[in-house]
Structure prediction request, 225 residues.
Amino acid sequence: NAGLDVDKVLELMMRMMLQVTRAERGFIMLKGSDGKLKPVTALNFNDEEIRSPQFEFSSTIVEQVARTGEPAVVTDALAESQFRGQDSIMDLQIRSILSVPIKQGDETIGVVYMDNQSGQKRFTDEDRELLLQFAGKIAGPIENSRQYARQKEEADFLKRTLTTSLEQLRTKYSYGNIIGQSKPMRELFKLLDKITETHFPVLILGESGTGKELVAKAVHFNGPR
Prediction:
């Protein structure tokens, strides 16, 4: 639960789930911002990553589990009439399927999907209960990772905002003898930046006590010699 690299955490848990259920292949799918499920981890029993995982599982089972929030166990898909017409089942010759929801509270945020192409291994109710226990542990690292990503995004935004604010406050020359950082004073400093590099005479207007002499000294001190 303390891990922030969610990909490594999910890979580790997938290896454990493959070992416990003796499945040939395993997939972890999470809902994206668009609400669609996307495979984030896909391994086989040889610890090899499955290429193009989005085409390698029964989408019917996965969508059913995501929609209902209930686990699904299929002991022999090739023998059941409801699966015989499905391309994924027939093309991949999938026999036994086990799929459970990944929940955050009452919300289903993803799905764990396991299958076997061999008729020798069929999933049981015990496998389903084991996989539900594992799926219950997945939600924590996922939420931690997402919360960390949100906090990092907020921190980056604040950093960019602060940098922009500092750039707006920064002037080319030093005006330490003039007190003030309000918006009108910053506009005055920027104006002084423009005129202090020129040889043009400057007329400073203002009521008594507003700091005309300080501005004049700043122009004279910073300007060209």
Residues 204 and 212 are 6 Å apart (CA to CA). The longest strand covers residues 107-116. The mean pLDDT is 80. The chain is about 45% helix and 15% strand.
